[in-house]
Amino acid sequence: MIITKENILEFEKLYRTTFVNSMSGFKSASLIGTISDKRNTNLAIFNSVIHVGANPPSLGFLMRPVSVDRHTYKNIKEVGFYTINHINKDIFKNAHQTSARYDENVSEFDECGLTPEYSQKLKAPYVKESKIKIGLKFVEGQEIKYNGTIFVVGEIVEIIILNELIGIDGYVDVEKAGSITISGLDSYHETKRITRLSYAKP
Amino acid sequence: MIITKENILEFEKLYRTTFVNSMSGFKSASLIGTISDKRNTNLAIFNSVIHVGANPPSLGFLMRPVSVDRHTYKNIKEVGFYTINHINKDIFKNAHQTSARYDENVSEFDECGLTPEYSQKLKAPYVKESKIKIGLKFVEGQEIKYNGTIFVVGEIVEIIILNELIGIDGYVDVEKAGSITISGLDSYHETKRITRLSYAKP
Predict the structure, then answer these.
(1) ipTM, 2 decimals?
(2) Within a 10 A sphere around the Cβ of A117, how many other Cβ atoms?
(3) pTM above 0.95, yes or no
(4) Would you say B181 and A19 are in contact if contact means Cβ atoms under 8 Å apart?
């Protein structure tokens, strides 16, 4: 069947949100850790983290419009650093719970049963329970004029990871790390590798 | 172990590319179909498609710097329309092959064994073999100044999908559709749903 934009605009709001959020396919599952100038920690689940560049190493994610208070983005702008932590099978329920609306002075670490952890190099909390932890320095926030979302880019400062997850060619086995993937807003999936393919030539 | 930015910058180039591309976790697997003003079709695999907004319905993806010729972006700007087609288990090898460097006048549809399909509404080719096909109108390209990549936003014009994939709440079962996920540059994974979780409250 063909569903047009006009059909989508006529959908009931929650149905539409669920439907359109399914369209991008499988998504990364990350917890973004931040801290405010006043030392309040914040932790939030994101499913929009993508690769931006390898040299210099950088990642991006999309923030919803900041017309309402977004603690994550506010902290990132205040402090200049944040962490991206892969969500694994053992913590996906805790991670999902961070999407509840907590007050700014409440830490999702406490409320959701996750443990903040700090490195010497970065002024932002990692998630101890995560197996792949990435520390980033904020470099750019590009507003999408179309709908007010913000594409946030950070440069990788450091990565905390088990050596055994890194392959001989540099590939990191995120499946072995137990990292999961999300579809829609609330569906969590584990993965099973089909294969790796070699570099394609005409 | 801790791997710093300085370590990463010292990695051999291909090792670094493979390593950093693993950091974003699992990614969507899409084929983007375009056509030039001269009616040359183009098809390219992307793993950076993400949700931008539900109302109006929109998706985004990241283009690498256009310092070299990027047929996909050139066509999108010329014609104003493109398609995003989910990659499923039956076509992931064909999809991977589109990443080879073909000349502009060669169609990846022909070279990679996939079939262009057109709807009445959209001036861009869909991939017949895909189970979830999305037609989009180009609305915005935001350059990331940090490294010259471009975040491309499109508004959904129409979606071609089997009715049976759409749940009662609007959730589209991308796993049932056979959509796959990618990690790193070349690792393909099928998925197994763990569960769906309900809307989180404090």
Answers:
(1) 0.97
(2) 17
(3) yes
(4) no
